Automatic annotation (TrEMBL):
Keyword terms: Decarboxylase, Flavoprotein, FMN, Ligase, Lyase, Magnesium, Metal-binding, Multifunctional enzyme
Top-level taxon of the source organism: Bacteria
Section of the entire sequence shown: 192 to 413 of 413
Entry similarity comment: In the N-terminal section; belongs to the HFCD (homo-oligomeric flavin containing Cys decarboxylase) superfamily.
Cofactors, names only: FMN; Mg(2+)
Protein task: Catalyzes two steps in the biosynthesis of coenzyme A. In the first step cysteine is conjugated to 4'-phosphopantothenate to form 4-phosphopantothenoylcysteine, in the latter compound is decarboxylated to form 4'-phosphopantotheine.
Catalytic function, reaction form: (R)-4'-phosphopantothenate + L-cysteine + CTP = N-[(R)-4-phosphopantothenoyl]-L-cysteine + CMP + diphosphate + H(+); N-[(R)-4-phosphopantothenoyl]-L-cysteine + H(+) = (R)-4'-phosphopantetheine + CO2
Enzyme Commission number(s): 4.1.1.36, 6.3.2.5
Single GO MF annotation: phosphopantothenoylcysteine decarboxylase activity
Name of protein: Coenzyme A biosynthesis bifunctional protein CoaBC
Pathway: Cofactor biosynthesis; coenzyme A biosynthesis; CoA from (R)-pantothenate: step 2/5; Cofactor biosynthesis; coenzyme A biosynthesis; CoA from (R)-pantothenate: step 3/5
Gene designation per UniProt: coaBC
Cofactor note: Binds 1 FMN per subunit.
Region (Phosphopantothenate--cysteine ligase): 11-222
UniProt organism field: Salinicola endophyticus
């Protein structure tokens, strides 16, 4: 029997990739499998939380006791997150596409006469975790940072810019960790008395890492 230290807490988690349509048959996306976000959702539910998991397209089973909402695009993910609020804890683990096509072609795009290439026009997607953190009645907001260089510098920037309470920085350039794999490693970064504090979590299965992240979070939730 696990500790029920999240009993009665409402938690909203995003997981997986988003898929941004270009035309009826093509899209822009990324390699997120959803494993990290689903491990967090399972761990929260096992500790007694009421969990809504807003999921991009993944090939994973819904963890027991979790309410799952399936979405495709970043705009759909934001709408589903806003519909699931209010909550006390929000965790943005999804790999959300920063851009989408300026317009989605109604029919399959055809190769044009220009044999040298083609240019796609993209527009910025809304930032889901920053939108949640900017609300007046905001939950405790946790983001992830997927970086391939200067991990803590870039993650620290995201912590401040998105006004998060905690960021989980993971180096996604390391083989066997991060996108798609069963294991991950992370550094937790947060602000305390005007200084950035850190806690390193070594490589381990995503299920164990989810528990370690929650062990930190339960000490900090209001
Ligand atoms: O799904 P897995 O295969 O298990 O892999 C796990 C993971 C590597 C995807 C996960 O651990 C992770 O790092 N998730 C965040 C990936 C990401 O998009 O990072 P980012 O540094 O681009 O974004 C920073 C934060 O802003 C994230 O919390 C992200 O969810 C959020 N974001 C980004 C863009 C956007 N438009 N809206 C957002 O909310």
């Amino acid at each position: 029997i696990s500790t029920q230290d999240l009993a009665g807490r409402r938690v909203v988690i995003t997981a997986g990739p988003t898929r941004e349509a270009l035309d009826p048959v093509r899209y822009l996306s990324n390699h997120s499998s959803g494993k990290m976000g689903y491990a967090l959702a399972a761990a929260c539910a096992a500790r007694g939380a009421q969990v809504t998991l807003v999921s991009g397209p993944v090939a994973l089973a819904t963890p027991p006791g979790v309410a799952r909402v399936d979405v495709l695009s970043a705009c759909e993910m934001l709408a589903a997150v806003e519909a699931a609020l209010p909550c006390e804890l929000f965790i943005g683990c999804a790999a959300v596409a920063d851009y989408r096509a300026a317009s989605v072609a109604e029919h399959k795009l055809k190769k044009g006469d220009d044999t040298s290439g083609m240019t796609l026009e993209l527009v910025r997607n809304p930032d889901i975790v920053a939108t949640v953190a900017a609300r007046s009645e905001r939950p405790f907001c946790v983001g992830f940072a997927a970086e391939t260089q200067a991990l803590e510098t870039h993650a620290g920037d995201k912590l401040s810019r998105k006004r998060l309470d905690l960021i989980v920085a993971n180096d996604v350039s390391q083989a066997g960790l991060g996108f798609g794999s069963d294991d991950n490693a992370a550094t937790l970064l947060w602000r305390e008395a005007d200084a950035v504090r850190r806690q390193a979590l070594p490589p381990q299965p995503k299920t164990a890492l989810a528990t370690a992240i929650l062990d930190h979070l339960v000490t900090r939730l209001p």
